[in-house]
Design brief:
It is built from 1 helix and 39 strands. By secondary structure, the protein is mainly beta. β31 (374-376) and β32 (380-382) form a beta hairpin.
Length: 503
């Protein structure tokens, strides 16, 4: 036999002899190690599935083990579902004889779809456990989910197997009109604090109607969803000051993604759009979080929008985008936006007092405040900016120039900053940035740090070390701050009365 053939046969024999013919295991001894002892699946709405959560299980021993059972404590009746290393088991609830190799780990993925009836009526928590093994070797990992009861508002399916839409400016939106006599939900134009509301698509107020939000109302918008208030319709947000840190009397608009990882992600839903010709808007104690544009406000036919004691955070484009609008703002806080936290464009009439306007977006071109008196389509079109007055305000941010003034000579461009802290470090030669010009700038503080408490978590409070401390003019005093605290004299700049920070 030739040498090559001998080597070939020898290699085959060696391979056969070296192959393991069985995977012997020992029973689990109750010493599994887990990546966490409790899995919190955050908050879900009744009947809506949660996100998927991960639990890792480790075998730190030197032996391959077999776990007799991995199962949910409530068995087949559990509202949780698990997969174990890609296996589905019995209805995603019960698994038998699961092998875990020495010094290895397995992955358990967890989901849930509970209803409010499944939750504990005292705290609205739905709980269960994942049980590993039994008897003396029994180990458990707790599962916990907060369940919110909710009213779901969405476009209904129509006869031709499509869903409702609304059309504005020749653009069709996936949306629907709120119905004050809906057979299921009752008056959809009145949002109470009894249940949360979840909106899919654009909820639209019928022309001539008013949508009302009570103090404590909670509204959650799905991706590409929002609220539209069209011609002759009105928005009334009747929030009040809260007594606790739970913001129990604040009206809150945010995304329907309630997981902690999504708490500060911009652009999760669209906008609140107050369209041209809408009227008589009053907004008090409203918080808007994580939208594309927090408030989009078009021309209001010379009616004034009142926005008081409100907060807008983490907008992917603008916190407020106002186009030739008329706004009075008091105790307003806007933080972080991809273009500008406050954009007042195409003219208009604006007065903001005791407002904190800040931008710490992670980019290079963003502004805290943008003012202009034109817009560009094919050719520039100018509109008068008859007033843009800022009193006792803070306008600040991460970059050298947080103030952007853009004037078209074809229209008025009237602006005034009185007793404001401004961030503007450039050597801009435009006369618009002549901070010694008293016709536009009175007692402004330039480029001094307001020392906000925690910008990343939208806490723009100040204390007595802030450059904004006691620098306001009593002539523009709003007696109570955004939290209902009495202002001292001389007042602090911005929306918050200064308080000591906890160590």
């Amino acid at each position: 036999m030739r040498p090559f053939s001998l080597l070939f046969i020898f290699g085959i024999l060696l391979t056969i002899c070296s192959c393991r013919t069985d995977f012997s295991t020992v029973p689990s001894n109750g010493k599994l190690v887990f990546s966490r002892d409790t899995v919190f699946l955050d908050t879900v709405f009744s009947t809506i599935s949660s996100s998927t959560y991960l639990l890792k299980v480790y075998n730190h021993s030197k032996k391959d083990i077999s776990i007799p059972t991995i199962k949910l404590g409530k068995g087949l009746a559990s509202k949780y579902r698990i997969t174990v290393d890609g296996m589905q088991g019995q209805n995603n609830k019960i698994f038998s004889d699961v092998v875990l190799l020495a010094k290895d780990s397995l992955y358990i993925f967890i989901e849930t779809t509970p209803t409010i009836a499944d939750a504990n009526p005292d705290d609205f928590l739905y709980t269960d456990e994942i049980e590993f093994d039994n008897g003396n070797n029994l180990q458990k990992v707790k599962l916990l989910t907060l369940v919110k009861d909710a009213v779901f508002l969405y476009p209904k399916r129509v006869n031709n197997n499509t869903t409702e839409t609304v059309t504005f400016d020749d653009t069709e939106f996936n949306g629907f009109y709120l119905d004050e006599n809906d057979p299921t939900n009752g008056n959809e134009l009145h949002f109470t604090n009894q249940k949360a509301y979840v909106i899919y698509g654009y909820a639209t107020v019928p022309e001539g109607k008013t949508v009302v939000f009570d103090a404590g109302a909670r509204v959650y918008f799905h991706t590409n969803s929002g609220l539209i208030v069209p011609q002759s319709a009105s928005l009334q947000c009747n929030g009040t000051v809260s007594e606790t840190s739970q913001s129990e009397n604040e009206i809150i608009f945010e995304s329907d993604r309630l997981e902690a990882d999504y708490s500060n992600i911009p652009g999760q839903w669209a906008t609140v759009w107050l369209r041209d010709g809408s009227t008589n808007h009053n907004i008090n104690h409203l918080t808007i979080k994580n939208a594309t544009i927090g408030l989009r406000i078009d021309s209001q036919d010379n009616t004034t929008i009142s926005i008081k004691n409100s907060q807008i955070y983490n907008s992917s484009n603008y916190g407020i985008l106002a186009q030739n609008a008329k706004i009075t703002g008091e105790n307003l806080v806007i933080n972080t936006a991809g273009i500008a936290t406050l954009g007042c464009i195409y003219g208009g009439n604006y007065q903001f007092t005791h407002c904190t306007i800040n931008n710490y977006w992670n980019g290079s071109q963003q502004k805290a405040l943008l003012l202009n008196n034109y817009k560009t389509n094919k050719t520039p079109t100018a509109k008068d900016l008859t007033q843009a007055t800022f009193n006792n305000c803070i306008i600040y941010g991460a970059y050298a120039d947080e103030l952007f003034l853009d004037k078209n000579e074809a229209a008025l461009f009237e602006f005034q900053f009185n007793n404001c802290l401004l961030k503007s470090e450039s050597n801009n030669s435009s006369s618009l940035y002549n901070f010694k010009d008293n016709s536009h700038y009175n007692n402004v503080i330039l480029n001094q740090n307001p020392r906000f408490l925690d910008i990343a978590n939208n806490k723009l409070n100040i204390n007595n070390t802030s450059a904004a401390f006691a620098k306001g003019n009593p002539a523009y005093l709003i007696p109570l701050d955004i939290n209902g605290k009495s202002r001292t004299l001389p007042p602090d700049l911005g929306a918050y009365q200064s308080v000591p920070f906890a160590n």
